[in-house]
Amino acid sequence: MAESFLSSDWYRVAPLRLRRSSHVQMARHVYRGEAWHVIQDLQGGKFHRITEQSHAFFARLDGTRTVQELWEQICRLYPDDPPSQTGLIQLLSQLHNADLITGDRRANMHEIDRRAREEGRKIAFGYVKNPLSLRLPLFDPEPLLRRLVPVSMALFSPVGAALWVLLMLVAVAVAFLSWERLEAPRAESILTAANVAYLAVAYVVVKLFHELGHGLAVKRWGGEVREVGVMMLVFFPVPYVDASQASFFPGKWQRMVVSSAGILVELTIAAGALIVWSVAEQGPVATLAYNLFLIGGVSTLLFNGNPLLRFDGYFVFADWIESPNLGQRSNQYFWYMVQRHVLGHAEARPPLVGPGEAGWLMGYAVAAFVYRMIVMVIISLYVATAIPVLGVAIVLFSLYLVFVVPAAKGIRFLATDQSLDVRRGAATARLVALGAAVLAALVFVPVPHATVVDAVLEPGADTLVRAQGSGLVDAVIARNGDRVTAGAPVLRLSEPLLDLQTALAGADLEDARLRLDFVPIADANARAVWAEQVAFRLARREELGRKAEDLIIRAPSDGVLALPDQSRIVGRLVRQGDVVGTVLRPGDARWRAAVPADRAEFVDTDLQAVDVRLRTTPDAAFPARIVSRSPEVTTRLDSFGLTNRGGGRLVADPTQEAPVSLDPVVTYVVEARGWTPDNGPLPAGSRAEVRLTHSPAPLAPRLWRAVRRTFLVYFGA
After folding, report:
1. What is the pTM of this model?
2. In this structure, are residues 344 and 427 in contact, taking their beta carbons and an 8 Å threshold?
3. Domain residue ranges of the chain, discontinuous segments joined by +
4. What is d(CA 611, CA 277) in angstroms, rounded to the nearest whole number?
5. Of 77, 144, 249, 311, which residue is most buried, by most CB within 10 angstroms?
6. β-strand 559-562 against 236-241: which pairing, if any?
């Protein structure tokens, strides 16, 4: 419903002579082609955003003209879209509540005292509302930052940007060359007693420079930083600086640089640490550099740079899409859509939304809520396991704030809001019907149900191309993809020492034969001795001949040769028993899959179909069947290809050299039907994805099962 142009309450404000408070500053911003004005409250440290038309009215509040006179002037200034009296009354109310205007009468000290107490209660409630994030101000860093203005001018300049990009390119190249060593460790390996000290030093260094980066960025464009302190984030100290004055900067890119300064600094430290780690010998320097890389690189990109959390990445993202106060406005727009389309409240007033902004707001509200829930669950479970009693209390309190408080507000809105007086019953009925429909869908409507796991090719014993001898690969006789027959040569090895030994054995044999020929026939004993020497040296030469024959690696059966790294295999050392390739034969292929123990029940009792999808051709699915199952639950695996070290889903135990999973599994042998070598050569250890399809089942029992399992794992109850 459009607001009334005239208001019956206009007489209350028309004769007032109002003026702007002396502690405000204004700056003009442009969002999505529309001009807005940001008002900075220097006394309260808050920022407010008003439209161009509201600014025209607010800027003329100098105490010399009445509100009536100013309204008439603004109407003449905007004849095509004059401001309504109702809108101006709302604007004056907002400005008054924010202490941005004063009247021509003496100040109401009782009202000022009441607002001060109310502000104190809001701050205290903010601490109670989020006990996992408490702020403790320490000191004013402005005098120190003023001395560092030349440094900020040099860092945030075109030359500084070019040097930063160059450093990032070098770090990316180092990471690419050291990719196998840069294995992402689990918390169990990071939080060891030996590594905690390095981790603490790295954390302090990174976070101090992070906040210094924010402060220097603010000073680069003439702002002030008046507060630095410590924020207790999940009972862990995190330094912070108040860089909110960057919101007052008129340039979009200036605000983005200030918000991203901490991320840029941490990435700089991470890049330098990565380079040092790549060249340093194993020891304290390399360990500290690796921890600096983890905190400054990985944690920064996952958390501080994530726009779905209200950290630096959020403010960069909001300025980039030109949607200020993105989080609050997206929530307002989401609840407006709920009122409009769920409750059927046609008179619901939408929040201010710019051109093309509705999609951003709706998508961000949903994505941010889901991501916050995931983070909340992870942090809550961690705290609950680390500090059982206090942790469980925090979990319950977090659930209360996330679910109970919004539900209570929704019920109160539905029961008491005056805008729903006419259709309160219909809105309640729609909400109840929607809730019943969702509950019924969760409880009764079956949805597809499947278990997806990784698998590795399990070749038969007569398909492995093994080396019978040891030596350097001298030549490749059969190529990858060639059809071979049993006994056909595949590779030729060379062993120079064996050639020398064979030549010496031949010379010794010839010497023994000559000596035997020169012994008189009458000397039977001597002839017997040399006859034994001839037989011994002949056996020695034959043994060396067999070893030389073993230097030819042959195909064990008929089929298609799969020879990985054929172009780089020449010159490689191959030892006796090493597998250098596989012979692929027409027929069924067997894969070994590892299923998490909690999913094995579905595989054993409710299996409808099995499909195998090769990693090389994920679009092609081969029907399969389960051939065998391991009799026990285990953590030992047959290949690292099933773990995160080989790109799989299971997490390998970082303390073990053999492939061991941190979670218990049940292994199955799956036979894929319809596969032939023409589908592509697959060497031993090739990876595939196995989809084990179960009967469709409703979501509610499955969710309840997941919750119960989580409590069993973390709380043992």
Report:
1. 0.65
2. yes
3. 10-121, 132-320, 329-445, 453-459+586-715, 496-550
4. 44
5. 249
6. unpaired
